[in-house]
Amino acid sequence: QVQVEESGPGLVKPSETLSLICTVTGVSISNGQWCWVRQPPGKGLEWIGFLYDSGNTNYNPSVRSRVTTLVDVSTNFFTLKLSSVTAADTAIYYCARLLFGIRGLGLDVWGHGIAVTVSS
Amino acid sequence: QLTQSPSSLSASVGDRVIITCRASQGIANSLAWYQQEPGKAPKLLIYSVSTLQHGVPSRFSGSGSGTEFTLTISSLQPGDSATYFCQQLGSSPYTFGQGTKLEIK
Predict the structure, then answer these.
(1) Tens digits of residue pLDDT in A6-65
(2) Residues near B3 by Cβ (< 8 Å), separated by ≥ 6?
(3) Which of A2, A13, A20, A88 could serve as A80's disulfide partner, Cβ 3.0–4.6 Å?
(4) Are A8 and A116 in contact (CB under 8 A)?
(5) Cα A46–B44–A109 angle (5° rounding)?
(6) Is the torsion defined by CA of A91, A92, A95, A101 positive or negative?
(7) What pLDDT score was predicted for residue A104?
């Protein structure tokens, strides 16, 4: 059974870098496509981006200049780094598996989410 | 851009419920629907417009083409109270609709 789980600090200071890890179990991370989604308090879902082919990336233009993602095949996790954070980056951050055929199909495995607050 | 309607609705157990998702441009029928209960992660219900994800009850169905899509719950059950989101995966970024909050009367 494929599972993913987010981990990282729940509080980040403004202007600093948010760093999260998504640990994948039940499948090799090189055998899938993986993504990050966030949800500000009381609001909808925002697509951050996804990783494919164990290293290629595709990001939402809204965060592209500030985001970095990496895949560690040896330990089966991938990361999210978001720099220069502001209060607008306060959200629940989810990692998920992206089903992909000819085109994207949907996100079939989600983590529980991790709440990150940006505050001094 | 995806626009869902209605943004909220209230219905009774046994009702047929329809939620609409409109895309601002064609999305190659790459549309998914999710259910999110309060405090939980979203759950994939339907992908590729009308394919039911494993384990999802058959009272959920999806249809549509081009730029207009619908999620139908044929007979509403008490556990269906949740927020429903559509997502387009036809072109990056894979954006979500703003959500439809469904309450049981």
Answers:
(1) 999 999 999 999 999 999 999 999 989 999 999 999 999 999 999 987 788 999 999 999
(2) B21, B22, B24, B97, B98
(3) A20
(4) yes
(5) 80
(6) negative
(7) 85
Residue in B closest to A110 by C-alpha: B41
pLDDT at A120 over 90: yes
Identify the CA nearest to A89 among candidates A41, A36, A24.
A41
C-alpha–C-alpha distance, residues A100 and A118, integer Å:
33
Element at A91 (helix H, strand E): strand A91-100
Length in residues, chain B: 105
B77 pLDDT tier (thresholds 50, 70, 90): very high
Sign of CA pseudo-dihedral B40, B41, B46, B52 = negative
All residues at 6 or more sequence positions from B102 whose CB lies less than 8 Å from its CB, including other chains: B8, B9, B10, B11, B17, B19, B80, B81, B82, B83, B84
Interval B56-77 mean pLDDT: 97
pLDDT, average across residues A64-79: 94
CA distance, residue B29 to nearest chain A CA (Å):
10
For the record, the structure tokens of B44 come out as 């994939």
Residues of B in contact with A35 (CB under 8 A): 94
Q: Would the CB atoms of A44 and B32 count as touching at under 8 Å?
A: no
Residues of B in contact with A46 (CB under 8 A): 96
Between chains, do B93 and A47 touch, taking CB under 8 Å as contact? Answer: yes
Q: Are A51 and A76 in contact (CB under 8 A)?
A: no
